[in-house]
Write a structure and sequence with these properties.
With 570 residues, the protein is α/β, with parallel strands linked by helices. The protein contains 19 helices and twelve strands. The strands form three sheets. The protein has a six-stranded mixed sheet, sandwiched between helices. Strands 2-1-4-5 form a four-stranded antiparallel sheet, covered by helices on one side.
Amino acid sequence: MQFLVRYLKPYVRRMTGGMICKFLGTIMDLLIPALLAYMLDGIVPTRNAPRIYLYGALMVLCSILAWVGNVFANRVAAGVARDCTRQIRHDLFGKITRLTAEEMDRFTIPSLISRMTTDTYNVYRMTGMMQRIGIRAPILLVGGIIVTMTRDAALSGLLVALLPFMALIVWFISRKGVPLYSEQQKNVDHLTRIVRENLTGIRIIKALSKTVDEKRRFGQINESLAASETKAASVMAVNGPTMQFLLNMGLVLVVVVGARRVSLGLTGPGNIIAFISYFTIILNAMLTITRILTMYSKALASARRIDEVLDGKEETSPAALPDADENAPHIAFDHVTFSYGKKSPDVQDISFSLKRGQRLGILGPTGAGKSTLIKLLLRLYDPDEGSIRIRGTDIRALPLDTLRKKFGVVFQNDALFRGNIGENIKLGREISLEEVNQAIADAQAAFIAEKGGLEAEVVSRGQNFSGGQQQRMLLARALAGTPEILILDDASSALDFKTEAALRAALRTGYADTTTVIIAQRLSAIMQCDLILVMEDGVPKGLGTHDELIRSCPIYQEIAQLQLGGDADE
């Protein structure tokens, strides 16, 4: 909860004003039973009507002041909770965007979504509740005990005797509840993952008639979540009834002992009525505290999960830009080895270099490590061994903004965002209309004009466009602004051969100074590259031109024979 204190500091003045109003309003609530007792024992026996009306008016005034104070304080509390949680969400989202790829893998996307939504909402509810009833209930509890002790110490002793038992119950339940709510939130993460996977893959699920299986899979995690919720709720549910039982037993004892004291003339009936009112106030305050305890347990578990993300490891970026070596290769991999799990290498001993304007093709079976090389080049991950250099400078010495502005990228599973086509191509970059139109032409995306131009709507993930149209818009995004380095990760798989050939021709003529890295499954997409890297199981199996590899690399020969047949040697 330390991070929450940090976020509440800017609102201390507002919170203080709200707490003062809440305090005064609560004091007014505590005065009403005392005024009633005085009327019954001190004024009613004298039959002094004006004084009865006066004290009745005072009770009405106290009620109005209590209402005004509580309403104002509740509005302040809601505003502080809203503003504080808004800032937490803002910082949490910003932190997520700066997390290293390893941290993203550790937390997982569904868990981060859950922390951004469910966990921040739990913190919001707790922050508001603690300012409203979290202040009012303890004042009513402590104030009620103090007032009753001043009125009748003997009767108050009955209440004081119950306090150790109530404190023990609160301690025990809170100790059990927080871990259970943490487990519940983990199940929420799993549920979010299942729902996200199903919504993303709904088409393939329907196409393969897997709806029943997916419903069964969802049902399992749903039942697990319900079980964890039931377990947590069952533990917390003990609190309220137990408190109510103890306090009601105390109330019965107050009535019995109070009646005896009235019969002996040790106290008056008005005092007993006031004492019962105060006891009821104390009872309700204790029940409210149990509600706060439940919410606090949830919020504490959520706050810990949020704090884990806020303390996560960020991408590091040097501040200074080192001098480039104009004579060095544009891109150079020097004995690069990397492992995601830090157990066995996913790519091992990768070395090659490219001059400015050269094209590298990367070929290999699924899982060979082709996309991993791209992630390393973009510095989404850092290599475990070796180095990657751009113009002679290790990319770890380059500021991240400077490094990544050099690239135009189309990933294997890239995304279009809800908005319009122009926004998706520019993606917040300062790119002129002429550059955008040129990129559209080079990406062979003439269909954009038919769809309504740059203002045409794009729904989430571009689902209102075909696969080939989506891919050409992604290509236009990568080409816009004439990047220094162009990365195409299986970026033409949805294009027909004619369109792909036109795209390759446009890249050769319009981007001659752009160093290009192409990952492809089709040999035709990389045959004309200056250098081709053949990979298998993360290990380089061949490096050279098409003609060189067709003579020396068995894997390349096999792929060429399968795809090109008799034209493999041409």
